[in-house]
Each structure stands twice: as C-alpha cells, then as structure tokens.
Amino acid sequence: MEWDGRKPPVISRQRPGRSWLWTGLLAMTLAGAAVLYHFDPARTWFYPPCMFHALTGLNCPGCGGLRAIHKLLHGNVTGALHSNALVVLLVPIVLWVGVRVVWQTKAGVRQADSPVPIPLLWIVLGAMIVFGLLRNLPVEQFAWMSP
C-alpha cells in the first residue's frame, strides 16, 4: 500500500483509560455505600475490625467511621457525630475532592501533582492526630469522642 499524502491521524493526548478509572471508582464507591446502607457495621460480622484497637485497646481516629457513614446514609447526623465526628466532618471534603478531580478530568484540565491542596492535607493530618489523642484521654470532657 502506497502513501497517499494525507496527514496521519492525531492521537488524543488524554490517557484512554483515565475516564474508565473514575467511572470504576464511582461504581465501587456507590456499591460500598449500598453495602453500608443495608448492613449495619455494629451488627454485621463481615466488616474488618480495627487492628489498632485490637492491638492497643485504644481508639484510632477512624474507629467508628463505618458506623458513622452508615448512620449518615440513613439521615441520622446526630448518631453519626456520636460514632465518629471526624469522619462526619471529612465526608464533605472527600466528596468535594472527588467531584473536583472528576470534573477536571472530564474537562481536560491539566491537574497538579496532587488533586488535594497540600495545606488541606496538613490540616486534615493535624486534625486526625489531635482527634486520635483527645478521644483516648481519660477525661470526661472528651468522652463524647469515643465510639
């Protein structure tokens, strides 16, 4: 076959599998939310236990997080705050970051190295450390932080 002088096709610069990645992550998130909605972590055996709590007897910053999300999915914000207030506060941030990344990917906007602003990561890390320390203090004022 001879060359007919036409230009070769232009290949898209966007990675072909990237939109499938976000579609798959969204599907897994919705499936996980459906499982959490239908099966209460406080009454179901198949959720993994917290290894930090099993080894130390202390509550990590994530202890009670699955119960909090289960209660949020059922509209029980007060119960979710009692299970894990930090997770309840982080849910909107995680949703914002997820929507932002998907929106930028679909719009073809070049993303920075980190989809999350670095100062926000430091704030969340600091909040997790402080929350993890305070919820394990044997002080009555911080008892509400334990699940």
Helix % is 55-70%
Q: Quick one: overall form?
A: elongated
Largest sheet: none
Give the class from helix and strand content and strand pairing: mainly alpha
The proportion of residues in beta strands is under 5%
**Residue-averaged pLDDT:** 87
Summed up, the helix count is: 5
Model description:
With 147 residues, this protein is mainly α. 57% of the residues lie in helices and 0% in strands.
Element layout with pairings:
Blueprint: H1 18-38, H2 51-56, H3 65-73, H4 77-107, H5 118-134
Provide a brief overview of the structure.
This protein is an all-alpha fold and 147 residues long. The chain is built from five helices and no strands.
Short descriptors:
147 residues, elongated, mainly alpha
